[in-house]
Amino acid sequence: MTLRHWELAGAEDDRLFSPNCWRVRMALAHKGLAAQTVPWRFTEKDAIAFSGQGLVPVIDDGGREVHDSWAIAEYLDERYPDRPLFDGAQARALALFFKHWVERNVHGAMFRVIVADLFASLHEKDRAYFRETREKRFGQTLEALGAGSHAALPALKATFDPVRPLLVAQPYVSGAAPAFADYLLFGPFQWARSVSPVRLLEPDDPMYAWRERMLDLFEGMPRATRGYPVWA
Amino acid sequence: MTLRHWELAGAEDDRLFSPNCWRVRMALAHKGLAAQTVPWRFTEKDAIAFSGQGLVPVIDDGGREVHDSWAIAEYLDERYPDRPLFDGAQARALALFFKHWVERNVHGAMFRVIVADLFASLHEKDRAYFRETREKRFGQTLEALGAGSHAALPALKATFDPVRPLLVAQPYVSGAAPAFADYLLFGPFQWARSVSPVRLLEPDDPMYAWRERMLDLFEGMPRATRGYPVWA
Question: Which ipTM was obtained for this model?
Answer without folding.
Answer: 0.92
